[in-house]
Write a sequence for this structure.
């Protein structure tokens, strides 16, 4: 591990070689929006919200999967990047049925927070309104696919931390859905340990604990700090 | 999909007729997919029967790969008389007459004088249509595997890389990355550990059948190129990743590998040296995105074909995490000629920064559709009008689409442009793998944009948001335009969304998805505006939808 | 063959050692599946190859088959399902006795594949990817069959029909359905 | 100078946004000191008047009647404000979109209730195939999301509107 110095938004900062731009930026209090990223899990570079401009690069790069390099010059916010981020949030809101008003995660939702942070007041693109389905067969948990953003945090936390690999993604394109086992109802899953980590890491109200009312869903996330700590140690 | 793997549909085929003594004529019957679909296997069987029945001993009948002029199959070529016979019937009486023509060198067309062939320069396709794709001996007899023998016995790996570098060959899969540079990178990667050579034969562009034709016509040539590459970069294992939609290709590849191994040209101790190279075929399963190299590797590893962010590039960490060289079929098929005749010879063909030749699948509104190989730098006009014979039915050429779903439409007024990587990019398209679709004025360019967006939307791997959801919304906007329901604001929104998807998507599929929108907007914006402002489709393709919002009735 | 992961070839891949989980049924085709699995070293990277074998033998992939592969290759069930549904070549439902594949590649699209699909959908009363109620025929679309010279192309039970007209092919297909 | 003419309408929504508007409490005195409320559920006018300066639209566009009314309002209003999530995103009314109107009516009047009857065919407006946000059918000038937007947010927006400015609502409001 060697120290790398670079410039982010005009600030001279230092990080370790092999560290991502995102990680170095956050250590220095520079905010970059993310959705699929979660400290402690592998990176997939899927939501594209953390795109930043790197001087000399032909296109914006995802900060979560781009390693810092000596003398790198990074800009985290430009009009263009903000426009892209807003469009991505808009695409997510219109892709499924995100109705904050009746959502268990209302006011504790990363998607909702991102929309607010990016100053979104409405969407021009039409809502696609698919019938994405709900699985409430599990004794303690449920999944409402209408609120899923396919960040795959649940898939990764289950495979990488819990080691059960109950979750994965089936299908592709707009038909893609997270599934348990062979698409088996969650409550009948032979591999699920009911540990609840998937529910804890879900950024929206897609995965929820039963018995909670609207806006009560996500206030406590005891596992998240644990995952962070685990990551720091390694 | 079209036929089961072992296609036993028709009974066992006749053995080729190969007379012992001197022959006056050899009927080379095309057995590539196009002609087979027109019944060339039946022609072959009947021809064998007729020749045997006639008692002559100076006429041979063989199966060969693609003869190029696919539009007019089934094709038979008689190389002794430089003649090609098109639309060959399977009627015994007519065949008897044809056999006489074969012997006397009459009828058909003279290959070297025909414009379809005269303009072509064959490097990749030099054995296509002359070797039996199912017999390794035939390939060896025509000089096959001499390049591999030479490389492993007379050259160091560094010399092989240097030769490829000097040739100026660039990846024929689309992006045009310098092949020599890629080989050198893989050669330097890893420290004596495992490395892989992978052939990307996942030809997914709709309207493209180059790789299929090459692999079905002369699979050994591709295997030889892979083996030379493996020697150059220090790999001992490799995979050919081929589409499941091409069962004949799979069959011929598997048979070619077995035959080459038996002949000591693949496997252990190649050409009696210590170099070994083991090859396996991996069959894709219908996912366009697997043409993207990291997705392809994931698929070979038995996983969902979702691309991953690069770096690390496969040259550093590829298949099973090991350094991996990935080139496409045509790139590998070019290698043996480069080693045989030298990088300098190859570099003398072509134009600008694009050296050598390129194979194209010419299709669409053109008289002579088929498989062609031309020197880089030939103009699109020469390809469409001189080789392709122009647009049929008294129509005029409106545009030429290259590069498949990540490419673009080049308008008629730019047809004098040379075909090379840089010119195509500056015109808003790409070289791509070699699909070339000619469009006439009965084609609506907005409809074409919608068609390709529909393709990209359905082929999105679903991982990244811009591609997964952005293509869906772009398709809706294009659909609105085609239906006459869009406003100018919709058009602006389309452009804004397209820019984001192009810049923010994770892999080439998403980044390339808006390219047809951009190129059609650049050259055919008037057609978009006609749909929006006047609710008319100039090409007469699109149907306008009623304006008023529908109530449910109740 | 892949010696990079040779260590992963466990007992199951070694000849002579009792192989694999119990077969889902008495069907003898499972033995062929086992042969294929053994030949691939019973490793996770053989998943797609084994799915091809299964579909070839059984015509489609059902839950029993997927669960069997999951256990035999040591791949989590959700991942097996993820792979089986990612690739459009794999089907999870029984197909019709006959198949009709309409090519929708660029050349075919421009030459009328859309009209052919519409006519077939109406005549058969099924959507693309669907099978008629009496299971006599499945209607499929294909990205590109590489038969661009014969555009528009339709493949009926493995036989390519080139330069087809909507009415013509509909009548022909209807006679199979 | 005459006082600006203010109107509110209520399409497919729960009236929560109007309740939130009433939650302005004593600040309502300020509003009515500065503006004249010419139409809305809170006043007695039967016809939507001409020459309205600002109209707050609550609710999504769900029926043929909603569509007719919002078009009329748009034609007679200088500045149209989409008030609340239903107007801005279709929100809860839009939750019927994945199912379609026929299935909804069937559930509401037949299969889902005891003493089943048929869906009414007279005296009520027909449902549209899809519930739409207001800006999908007429141009909107100001968006004020929230379910409901808080009284503070509404107060701030009205204050600026009555001062003749278009409020920047990006930092004011959020969904839900």
């Amino acid at each position: 591990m060697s120290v790398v110095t670079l410039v982010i938004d005009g600030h001279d900062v230092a990080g370790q070689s092999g560290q991502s731009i995102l990680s170095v930026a956050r250590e220095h209090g520079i905010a970059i929006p993310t959705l699929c990223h979660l400290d402690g899990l592998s990176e997939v570079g899927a939501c594209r919200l953390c795109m930043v401009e790197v001087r000399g690069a032909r296109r914006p790069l995802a900060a979560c999967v781009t390693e810092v390099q000596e003398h790198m010059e990074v800009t985290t916010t430009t009009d263009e990047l903000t426009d892209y981020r807003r469009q991505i949030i808009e695409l997510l809101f219109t892709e499924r049925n995100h109705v904050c008003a009746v959502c268990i995660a209302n006011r504790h939702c990363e998607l909702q927070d991102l929309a607010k942070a990016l100053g979104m007041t409405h969407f021009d693109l039409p809502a696609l309104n698919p019938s994405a389905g709900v699985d409430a067969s599990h004794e303690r948990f449920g999944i409402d696919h209408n609120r899923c953003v396919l960040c795959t945090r649940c898939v990764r936390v289950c495979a990488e931390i819990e080691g059960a690999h109950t979750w994965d993604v089936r299908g592709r394109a707009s038909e893609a859905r997270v599934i348990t086992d062979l698409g088996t109802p969650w409550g009948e899953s032979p591999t699920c340990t009911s540990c609840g980590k998937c529910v804890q890491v879900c950024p929206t109200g897609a995965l929820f604990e039963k018995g909670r009312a609207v806006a009560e869903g996500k206030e406590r996330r005891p596992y998240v700090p644990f995952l962070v700590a685990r990551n720091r140690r390694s | 999909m079209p036929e089961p793997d072992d296609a036993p549909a028709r009974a066992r085929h006749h053995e080729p007729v190969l007379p012992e003594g001197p022959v006056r004529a050899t009927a080379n019957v095309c057995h590539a997919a196009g002609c087979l679909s027109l019944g060339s296997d039946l022609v072959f069987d009947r021809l064998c029967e007729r020749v045997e029945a006639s008692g002559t001993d100076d006429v041979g009948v063989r199966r060969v790969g693609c003869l190029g002029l696919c539009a007019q199959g089934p094709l038979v070529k008689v190389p002794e008389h430089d003649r090609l016979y098109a639309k060959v019937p399977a009627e015994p009486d007519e065949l008897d007459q044809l056999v006489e023509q074969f012997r006397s060198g009459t009828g058909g067309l003279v290959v070297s004088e025909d414009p379809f062939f005269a303009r072509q320069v064959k490097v990749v396709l030099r054995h296509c249509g002359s070797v039996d794709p199912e017999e390794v001996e035939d390939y060896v007899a025509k000089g096959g595997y001499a390049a591999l023998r030479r490389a492993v016995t007379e050259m160091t790996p560094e010399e092989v890389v240097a030769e490829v570098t000097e040739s100026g060959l660039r990846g024929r899969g689309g992006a045009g990355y310098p092949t020599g540079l890629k080989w050198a990178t893989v050669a330097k990667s890893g420290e004596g550990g495992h490395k892989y050579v992978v052939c990307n034969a996942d030809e997914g562009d709709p309207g493209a059948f180059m790789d299929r034709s090459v692999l079905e016509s002369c699979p050994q040539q591709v295997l030889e190129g892979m083996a030379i590459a493996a020697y150059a970069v220090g790999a001992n294992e490799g995979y050919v990743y081929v589409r499941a939609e091409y069962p004949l290709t799979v069959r011929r590849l598997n048979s070619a590998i077995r035959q080459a191994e038996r002949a000591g040209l693949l496997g252990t101790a190649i050409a009696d040296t210590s170099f070994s190279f083991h090859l396996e075929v991996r069959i894709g399963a219908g996912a366009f995105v697997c043409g993207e190299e990291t997705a392809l590797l994931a698929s070979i590893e038995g996983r969902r074909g979702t691309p991953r962010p690069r770096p690390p590039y496969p040259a550093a960490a590829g298949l099973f995490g090991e350094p991996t060289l990935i080139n496409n079929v045509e790139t590998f098929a070019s290698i043996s000629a480069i080693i045989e005749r030298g990088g300098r010879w190859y570099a003398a063909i072509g134009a600008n920064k694009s050296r050598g030749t390129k194979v194209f699948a010419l299709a669409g509104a053109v008289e002579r559709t088929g498989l062609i190989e031309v020197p880089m730098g030939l103009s699109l006009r020469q390809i469409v009008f001189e080789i392709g014979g122009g647009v049929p039915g008294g129509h005029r050429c409106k545009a030429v689409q290259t590069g498949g779903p990540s490419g673009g439409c080049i308008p008629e007024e730019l047809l004098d442009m040379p075909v090379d990587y840089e010119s195509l990019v500056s015109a808003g398209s790409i070289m791509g793998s070699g699909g070339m679709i000619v469009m006439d004025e009965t084609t609506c360019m907005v409809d074409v944009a919608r068609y390709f967006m529909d393709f990209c939307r359905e082929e999105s791997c679903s991982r990244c948001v811009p591609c997964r959801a952005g293509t869906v919304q772009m398709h809706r906007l294009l659909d609105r335009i085609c239906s006459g329901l869009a406003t100018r604001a919709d058009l602006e929104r389309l452009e804004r969304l397209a820019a984001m998807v192009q810049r923010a998507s994770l892999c080439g599929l998403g980044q390339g998805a808006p390219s047809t929108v951009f190129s059609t907007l650049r050259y055919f914006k008037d057609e978009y505006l006609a749909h929006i402002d006047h609710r008319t489709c100039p090409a007469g393709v699109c149907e306008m939808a009623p304006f008023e919002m529908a109530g449910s009735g109740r | 063959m892949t010696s990079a992961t040779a260590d992963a070839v466990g007992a199951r891949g070694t000849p002579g050692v009792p192989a694999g989980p119990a077969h889902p049924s008495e069907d003898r085709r499972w033995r062929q599946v086992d042969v294929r699995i053994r030949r691939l070293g019973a490793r996770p990277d053989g998943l797609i190859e084994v799915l091809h074998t299964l579909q070839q033998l059984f015509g489609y992939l059902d839950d029993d088959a997927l669960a069997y592969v999951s256990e035999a290759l040591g791949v989590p069930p959700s991942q097996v399902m993820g792979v089986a549904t990612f690739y459009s070549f794999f089907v999870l439902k029984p197909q019709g006795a006959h198949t009709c594949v309409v090519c929708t590649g660029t050349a075919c699209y421009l030459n009328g594949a859309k009209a052919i699909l519409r006519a077939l959908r109406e005549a058969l009363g099924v959507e693309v990817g669907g099978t008629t109620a009496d299971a006599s025929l499945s209607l499929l679309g294909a990205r590109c069959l590489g038969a661009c010279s014969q555009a528009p192309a339709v493949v009926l039970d493995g036989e390519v029909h080139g330069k087809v007209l909507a009415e013509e092919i509909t009548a022909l297909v209807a006679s199979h359905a | 100078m005459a006082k600006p003419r203010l109107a509110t309408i209520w399409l497919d929504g729960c009236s929560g946004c109007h309740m939130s508007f009433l939650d302005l409490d004593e600040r309502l005195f300020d509003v009515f000191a500065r503006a004249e409320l010419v139409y809305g559920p809170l006043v007695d006018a039967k016809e939507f008047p001409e020459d309205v300066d600002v109209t707050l639209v609550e609710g999504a566009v769900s029926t043929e009647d909603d569509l007719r009314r919002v078009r009329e309002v748009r034609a007679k209003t200088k500045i149209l404000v989409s008030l609340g999530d239903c107007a801005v995103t279709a929100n809860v009314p839009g939750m019927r979109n994945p199912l379609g109107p026929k299935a909804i009516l069937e559930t509401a009047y037949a299969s889902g209730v005891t003493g089943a009857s048929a869906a009414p065919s007279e005296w009520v407006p027909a449902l549209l195939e899809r519930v739409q946000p207001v800006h999908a059918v007429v141009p909107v000038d100001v968006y004020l999301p929230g379910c409901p937007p808080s009284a503070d947010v509404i107060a701030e927006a009205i204050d600026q509107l009555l001062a003749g400015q278009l409020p920047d609502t990006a930092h004011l409001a959020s969904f839900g």
Q: What stands out?
A: The longest strand of chain C covers residues 98-103. Chain C has six helices and four strands. The mean pLDDT of chain C is 87.
